[in-house]
Amino acid sequence: MDHSEADLGLFGPDSISWRVHREPVLWVAGVRALYLQALHPRAVQGVVQNTDYRQGNWARFMRTAEYVATVVFGTTHDAQRAGARVRKLHDRLRATDPATGEEYRIDEPELLRWVHVCEVDSFVTTARRAGVRLSDDDVDRYYGEQVRAGELIGLDPATIPDSAEAVAEYFQNIRPELALTPAARDVARFLALPPMPRRYGWTVGRPAWLMVAGSAFTLLPRWARRLYRMPGVPVTDVAATVNVRWLRTLARLLPVAEGPIYRDAMRRVEQAAAAPDGRPSRSQ
Prior knowledge:
Protein name: DUF2236 domain-containing protein
Structural class: mainly alpha
InterPro entries: MPAB/Lcp_cat_dom
Shape: globular
Oligomer: single chain
GO molecular function: oxidoreductase activity
Helix content: 55-70%
Pfam families: MPAB_Lcp_cat
Largest sheet: 2 strands, antiparallel
Order of helices and strands: HHHHHHEEHHHHHHHHH
Mean pLDDT: 90
């Protein structure tokens, strides 16, 4: 068998990463991560100054989803190649701090770490709140596995929070740097009411997106909702959990097509199981 066909990538079918990321409800998690990331003044300026995020937004959403799927379910080579493309893109991008006038790279480790932690926290938190059975040990394993995803974008693995306790400590330490800047407010408004593709604008597309974006926002930690000048009360947490569990059930009932990257991963699992020694190849 060709080695690339047996290669099950950075994580493999027994990983928590595969268990979490096979859930269609993680579309909600992706939007939650964007709301959270926008609260870092330098991170959001990097987006605003280097992209016209109001144009081509759906294509960007799809490219991001494809990147995450490639890192989780693709072969080791595909994941490394995707990471190299991201590093090359970031390498040439700069932004200017509007408060100080300082120019900075958008691939500064502090910013990359913020983006990474917001993403992985959103993925595993949303999955758990949606009803995916994950123990505390599973959550720690997920964060530990995702250190490899952080390495792909250029982070030193020793600096990446690798457990629930480490992630909580990271957020606690960085909170004084976060703020609801005008740019963050604009991004949040855009996430709630983005322009819809023409054929969906006056159909169920708009209310469906409002449901996704609203669920994503209410799944934010209380301190983040308070920064957005929205309630941080426990009743919101209960309502958010009920809502995202309903969305997970709905996603399972809808004819949601499995993406080609996931289907290819399942094919490689079957081929690996049929190998003479029965053992899949997995990057270590």
